[in-house]
Amino acid sequence: MGTRCEGLRDSLSPIAYYEEYSHFRLDCLKIDDNKELSMSANEDLAKERARCDFNVSEITNILDGGIERTKQRKKIESIALSNGKCCDVTPEETLGPKERYENAIRKSCLYTKIVKDQVLTLTGLEVLGSNSSVLRRTADAFFKDISPFLLHLGMFVPTIMGQGTPEQQSYWLPRALDFQIIGTYAQTELGHGTFIRGLETTATYDPDTEEFVIHSPRLTSYKWWAGGLGKTSNYCIVVAQLYTQGKCYGIHPFIVQIRDEDTHMPLPGVRVGEIGPRMGFNTADNGFLGFDHYRIPRNHMLMKNSQVLKDGTYVKVASHSKLTYGTMVFVRVMLVNEVAFNLAKAATIAVRYSAVRRQSEKISGEPEPQIIDYVTQQHKLFVCIATAHALQLSSNWLWKTFSAVLADMRGGNTENLPELHALSSCLKALSTSDSAALIEQCRLACGGHGYMLSSNLPLLYSFVTATRTYEGDYTVLLLQTARFLIKAWEQAESGNPVTPTVSYMEEAVVGNKYKWNGSAEGIIKAAYYVAAGKISSSVTSIRKRMKNGKAFEDAWELTGVQLVAAAEAHCRAVICDVYRKETVRLTANSSPNVKTVMDQLNMLYLSHWALERTGDLLRYTSTTEDDIISCQQRYEELLAAIRPNAVGLVDAFDFPDEILQSTLGAYDGRVYERLMEEALKSPLNAEPVNRSFHQYLKPLMQGKL
Ligand SMILES: CCCCC/C=C\C/C=C\C/C=C\C/C=C\C/C=C\CCCCC(=O)SCCNC(=O)CCNC(=O)[C@H](O)C(C)(C)COP(=O)(O)OP(=O)(O)OC[C@H]1O[C@@H](n2cnc3c(N)ncnc32)[C@H](O)[C@@H]1OP(=O)(O)O
Ligand SMILES: Cc1cc2nc3c(=O)[nH]c(=O)nc-3n(C[C@H](O)[C@H](O)[C@H](O)COP(=O)(O)OP(=O)(O)OC[C@H]3O[C@@H](n4cnc5c(N)ncnc54)[C@H](O)[C@@H]3O)c2cc1C
Question: Going by C-beta distance under 8 Å and a sequence separation of 6 or more, which residues neighbour residue 52?
């Protein structure tokens, strides 16, 4: 058997090698009868499920948005998952970079075909609307890392929809939706990501040929980062500075073909490639792109918001200057849902594992407890479940707000765009930051096994931590929200009406201190008073600095730390408020035990954040030390109350094992068996002796090196 293992790698391609190797790996390690690897489900998990006192599917339906939506999701999931070919023969993380990418393309094509042939016939174009989150979720059964097609569906198609004229949409969308072309969104450059007015790629109109000349004048103007750009896409949205009739009109989006549709070779004048290994996203071929006076037809400029006529005349169509930023706002809204989903996955893995894992002794000589019975473990984990709920419900609410503002804008009314921008910016910032931190908390809660890639927690973290940066960095987006808050504060001070999400300012500007009461509504009101206090302090600092001779821009910059904290506090209050109201609304007709457990989770979230911000409460409200002590006591009571339902709560997220892809989090709790099964798939276990022994170790050990 050893001989077969040793010779194999040399005679087969890497993927064929792994496929072949997976059939005899157990032989190689001489665990040939599988005796030690029990197939029966873990008893502790079974007991946890038996003691859960609420109807799990009721909460699943609430999170899905109703029983019909749960049915629809399950139907789509079962179509996709019943196609066994989605499974990897060998774990994707053990492949080299090229094989990983090729495997990701294979799986993306397979998944796309399933969606086109079987899901679209079921849902029609609904698949792009309310079912897109189901498609996104189901895709995780195919990819542990990221599909190279994510940007095609996530940004290329939405940009055409949001920025193209009806004629442009009718030309490009059918081709894109049918995957006849694959695109991405190339905005960021080597030199600029945040400050998009500073982008350097130029699109200069030539009226003689009715073309734009796309050019990258210097290294820093090279497009950098776009997902799927390096090898997959043949088209992309390029965001470039528009020049016509000798004048620059700022950044605009263009559809640019970069590769031949038949040979896939980069077209003359286009330089494209992949940017190299990254912390995550390693299957998404993030790329670079440069242009050498590359010509595209005039009508490849996306012209819904502004146009360049044949003679070069520039015409502004849109009623708001920032509508070209629309795709970013859309994706920020989508990302809140995206990270809620990923956090729910991490919580499921860590809670199930904590019910299976036993460690240490609470009382000497007694059986080792399940680690979930340590109150410190509950403290780490239950806030993750609660936050996943808070973000899921906030994301649904944000989506409704987004849709309403979009409908207004279709009628020419952009009045509510600044509030939407402020909300989507801060919710994107906080949800991604909280989720990344809590996924890491879940990993740490799983001890050493959480560090295994097969737990899926490291990959979840590396994916989600990037969301804090892309589509607008955390700090930068909170500063955008702060601009809106400071203006709103000034309006409230002068007695003018303010928009709904900042209406708390009208009461707070008077200067009263809020008296704490420990109810949910009381904690939320206190959170708003903390936000108001921080906004007020920022305003005072800016004014003081200006009084001392600073220009507004300098005073703003020097107050940046306070402004970010104010925007964070505002957003936290909004999340607490929305989470509370949505919980009450959605459980109005639920069974009593569902109502109770949803209320407990909600109170846990509110108490958690009150305790995290005791300094702020003491400073900006009339909260006393005794109030904090009773809040702490309530928090600890909630941990104990939630404990028996913890496994039921994560089961309610309803992730099939294929989507979780975790040795620690599978439904049956066969943690140790799965860890061993995955270990045996490691390429290093394909041979009893690695060739480096003969090449290096043996000579070293025998003093012959
Ligand atoms: C087969 C397998 C398939 C699997 C998939 C299955 C299904 C998929 C379906 C769905 C996918 C689901 C989810 C995920 C989707 C996609 C995500 C995946 C990956 C994404 C990868 C990342 C992509 C990117 O990162 S693209 C690049 C993004 N870049 C940024 O975000 C840049 C950030 N910078 C900015 O936004 C701006 O520069 C700025 C910081 C806002 C500053 O802009 P500036 O013009 O300088 O403005 P200024 O500060 O001066 O402000 C002036 C004024 O304008 C207001 N303003 C600013 N922005 C906006 C806006 N967007 N809207 C409205 N108003 C805005 C600003 O507040 C000022 O107002 P005022 O003067 O104060 O009143
Ligand atoms: C995994 C991944 C995928 C991506 N995919 C795409 C893609 O598909 N298409 C695309 O176009 N782009 C993509 N990007 C790029 C991404 O959008 C940018 O990286 C992001 O917008 C941040 O910009 P930056 O890298 O220029 O950071 P910088 O702006 O250089 O930020 C560096 C630091 O400076 C701080 N800073 C910057 N400006 C200010 C300010 N005004 N005030 C205070 N602090 C400031 C930031 O807070 C941060 O701490 C991707 C990035 C990643 C990581």
Answer: 644, 645, 647, 648, 651
3-state secondary structure of 208: coil
How many angstroms does the Cα of residue 428 sit away from the middle of ligand 1? 10
Residue 359 corresponds to which tokens in the numbers above? 């460690």
* CA-closest residue to ligand 2 atom 8: 226
Same domain, 509 and 490: yes
- Check: CB of residue 305 under 8 Å from CB of residue 250: no
Residue 278 alpha carbon, nearest atom of ligand 2: 1
Residues with Cβ within 8 Å of 587's Cβ and at least 6 positions away in sequence, in order, are: 62, 594, 595, 598, 599
Q: How far apart are CA 412 and CA 697, in angstroms?
A: 74
Cα separation, 255 vs 204, in Å, equals: 14
3-state secondary structure 603-661: HHHHHHHHHHCHHHHHHHECCCHHHHHHHHHHHHHHHHHHHHHHHHHHHCCCCCHHHHC
What digits encode the pLDDT tens for the residues 29-67?
344 444 456 778 999 999 999 999 999 999 999 999 999
Query: Which CATH number covers residue 195?
Result: 2.40.110.10
Do 172 and 272 sit in the same domain of this protein?
Answer: yes
- Residue 546: exposed, middle, or buried by beta-carbon count in 10 A (0-12, 13-18, 19+)? middle
- In the predicted model, what is the mean pLDDT of the chain? 92
Quick one: which of 108, 154, 105, 107 has its CA closest to 133?
Answer: 154
CATH of the domain at 412: 1.20.140.10
Looking at the structure, tell me whether residues 312 and 351 fall in a common domain: no
Ligand with smallest separation from the Cα of 148: 1
Note whether residue 516 is domain-resident.
yes
Check pocket membership of 156 for ligand 2, CB cut-off 6 A: no
The average pLDDT across 295-313 equals 97
State the distance from the centre of ligand 1 to the C-alpha of 671, rounded, in angstroms: 41
* Contact residues of ligand 1, CB 6 A cut-off: 108, 111-112, 132, 135-136, 139, 147, 149-151, 153-155, 185, 187-188, 194-197, 227, 322, 325, 328-329, 331, 334, 338, 417-418, 421, 470-472, 476, 480, 483
| Catalytic residue list contains 471 | yes
Is 70 marked as a binding-site residue? no
Kindly state the helix (H) or strand (E) to which residue 62 belongs, with its residue range.
helix 56-64
Whether ipTM > 0.95 holds is yes
If residue 488 lies in a helix (H) or strand (E), which one and from where to where? helix 474-493
Predicted confidence band of residue 510 (pLDDT cuts 50, 70, 90): confident
- 196 Cβ closer than 6 Å to some ligand 2 atom: no
The number of distinct structural domains making up the chain is: 2
Determine which one of 48, 77, 92, 471 is catalytic: 471
Would you say residue 86 has pLDDT above 80? no
680 Cβ partners below 8 Å, 6+ apart?
25, 26, 29, 31
187 lines ligand 2 (CB under 6 A): yes
Structure tokens of 308? Answer: 């360049």
Q: Are residues 254 and 299 in the same domain?
A: yes
> Do residues 598 and 451 both lie within one domain?
yes
CA-atom Rg of the chain in angstroms: 28
333 Cα to the center of ligand 1, angstroms: 10
Secondary structure E strands in 105-231: 183-186, 202-206, 211-215, 223-224
C-beta neighbour count of 103 within 10 angstroms: 20
Angle at 182 (CA atoms; ends 181, 185), nearest 5 degrees: 130
> In whole angstroms, what is the distance from residue 257 CA to residue 221 CA?
18
Left if phi > 0, otherwise alpha if psi is -120 to 50, otherwise beta: which for 40?
A: beta
194 lines ligand 2 (CB under 6 A): yes
Does residue 558 lie in a domain region?
yes
Q: Which pTM was predicted?
A: 0.94
Is the same domain home to 509 and 630?
Answer: yes
* Residue-range definition of the domain harbouring residue 294: 154-317
